[in-house]
Amino acid sequence: MITLNTHYAELKDAYLFAGIAKKTQAYLAQHPGQRLYRMGIGDVTYPLCDAVIKALREAVEDQAQKETFHGYMPECGAPFLREAIAAHYGRRGVALSPEEVFVSSGASDELGDILDLFSPQSAALVVEPAYPAYVDANVIAGRRLIRLASGEENGFLPEPPEQEDADLIYLCSPNNPTGAVFSRSQLQQWVDYANDRGAVILFDAAYEAFIETEGIPLSIFELDGAETCAVEICSLSKTAGFTGTRLGYTVIPKELERAGMNLNAMWVRNRTTKTNGVSYVIQKGGAAVFTPEGRAQVRAQLQIYKNNARLLTAALERCGIRYTGGKNAPYLWLKCPRNLGGWEFFDLLLNEIQVVGTPGEGFGECGKGFFRFSTFASTEDTAEAARRLISLLG
Ligand code: PLP
Hints:
Order of helices and strands: HEHHEHEHEEHEEHEEEHHHEEHEEEH
Oligomer: single chain
Structural class: alpha/beta
Strand content: 5-15%
Radius of gyration: 21 Å
Number of domains: 2
CATH superfamily of the largest domain: Type I PLP-dependent aspartate aminotransferase-like (Major domain)
Shape: globular
Distance between the termini: 62 Å
Bound molecules: pyridoxal-5'-phosphate
CATH class of the largest domain: Alpha Beta
Strand order of the largest sheet: 2-8-7-6-5-3-4
């Protein structure tokens, strides 16, 4: 008889998003035509910028002509895009070679696939509340999980735990869901800890483009010693609206070695086995993000979401609700008022003001009693949601 991967049975149901969908559908069935203000969404609202659209169109034309047509792309990414990304790091003072940059179809794909580099016997530390994919990908692999709870007392930015022995360490800054960002000295502590213990940090930088405070690291490779202990996973999803277009990149330094093996070389071997690369057209579109024109347009678009964050933070402050994030991050993480649980607060907002958010328990046990708003809705909807929050709780 075939033996399946029984670890799938250990996965918790994706009850959070199923629960949100069920409750909003039930509400709409009872209130047909009612408008909802969706402040829970993790998807972007505004389209790709002009520079990207132009590059995509040109690339489609290239595919129409024999002379410019591209078939399979290099598995680790097109040189033009790997070079553009390495230059992007260079402008921020991080020297990388293009061979240290791997083009991907997005951060989610990489967060799962990268686990191929590590033995199922290794232990993975996840700082919670956390993006659920970290836990789920390791449950599927049968790996031992160390859940490090964070809370208001440490600003959702815990220090490395002396007593734990993790092989893999997931860090996400700016954080989804808490919006917390590591300072340079806080992140340096984790880098030193990983180097001391021979662990590897998987640094999820999906939201680095939202950092605006001077001095907050945009990349873990700004820290001393990160090149010998970290892999950085990035995405153009939120940076440049590629959620549906799909493009990301992963940095694995050539210096990163464990047990006599080189992780960059292992990943080349993995990619050349498991993928035939990202499409030429999409990589051309992605390269446009790193041109001067693309950078300016993408920055302008991010301002829309940052402005949404300001609308929501102003509303929470008017209501006297404690929160983290909203600055340097597209998420706001708030303590449910009136001692409500996450789902109770969800019901209150849905029923009274038609605002939909995300209960904190979906991001780990320690998320109970918290709630997440995202800033990715349209400005009109966000402004209306903010107004309604003040009218209900202000
Ligand atoms: N990492 C974090 C922390 C995220 O919040 C998300 C998406 O919401 C991802 C990764 C996935 O990004 P991508 O669209 O590149 O797969």
